[in-house]
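User: My collaborator sent over this chain with a note saying "see what the structure looks like." That's all I know about it. Can you take a look?
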Amino acid sequence: MKNIKLASATPLGSFLPSKEACVYSKCYCEENVWKLCEYVNLHHPEELHHCYVVFISNAAKTVPLWMQQAALDSTVPVVWDYHVIFMYAGSGGCLVYDLDTVLPFPFTLKKYAAQTFRCDLILLPQYHR
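Assistant: Without extra context I'll predict from the sequence alone. Here is the result:
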């Protein structure tokens, strides 16, 4: 990562790189998150205990996520077999770092979950999380 810019003006997770500065490979969310973890380990190892890798899937391996760059329309979900995100949980709250979303980067967990997962009641059973 070159010319690292801060991810946000807020102190919570502000040591992490901006979205533009992150290593990104389309359709390789786990590798992208690995690179974020590697960045923290190399540059801010004291923050590792606040960092989490979250694997999102279900028994059917059909997880619908809204607000994804891969969608032709952000109002329509993309169905992944799994998706991986990076989370930073500090005393000021929890931030989600998803390189595949059209939502802000980072975004608060509460807002990310509401806009990305929506409600299972509108989904067919095989898509429930």
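A starting point for your reply to your collaborator: Residues 66 and 77 are 4 Å apart (CA to CA).
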